[in-house]
Amino acid sequence: MSSGSKTILGILTFLPIVFGMVFFVGYIFFIKDMVLNIPPDNDPQVFFRQYFMHLFNPAVITGFIGYILLHFGLMIWYIIHVVKNGTRTEGEKVMWILLFIFIGTIGNIIYFLVKIVSGPGAKPAYINSQVN
């Protein structure tokens, strides 16, 4: 895998964490607005109108959809990468696939750092920094 491909894959691998934080912050603001904006007359119709207005906050929607799409897309890509890689034993392949399924984004990051960045053919950092 080329250095440019590894860079793009690294950005995509860590991007679900960013989308997850955007979703989490948007959701926290959603909860805060719901608690602070309770109608004084306790009218349920006004309350639910405000509820749905805040529920479709762009930060909440963008964070949720972005996280889900990237998470499942990367999980499929990493599973295909593990299965097609001939240097791994069957037990190791099963272990990585289970890691992707049960740990999710953290499993993708671990695989990226352990097997892609420092995998076979990777040069140590001090070799790349030396000038001939």
Question: What does this protein look like?
Answer:
Helix content is 80%, strand content 0%. The protein is an all-alpha fold and 132 residues long.
Q: Could you outline the blueprint of secondary structure elements for this entry?
A:
Blueprint: H1 3-36, H2 44-55, H3 58-84, H4 90-103, H5 105-117, H6 125-129
Helix pairs in contact: 1-2, 1-3, 1-5, 3-4, 4-5
Main attributes?
80% helix; mainly alpha; single chain
> What is the CA-CA span between the terminal residues?
24 Å
Mean pLDDT, all residues: 80
The ordered string of helix (H) and strand (E) elements is HHHHHH
The portion of residues forming beta strands comes to under 5%
Total strands: the figure is 0
- What is the assembly state of the chains in this entry? single chain
What Rg is obtained from the alpha carbons, in whole angstroms? 21 Å
Contiguous helical run count: 6
Shape: elongated
Estimate the helix proportion, in percent.
over 70%
Number of domains as seen in the coordinates: 1
| Largest beta-sheet details | none
Q: What are the segments in which pLDDT stays under 50 over at least 5 consecutive residues?
A: none
Structural class: mainly alpha
Give a brief outline of the structure.
The protein has 132 residues and is an all-alpha fold.
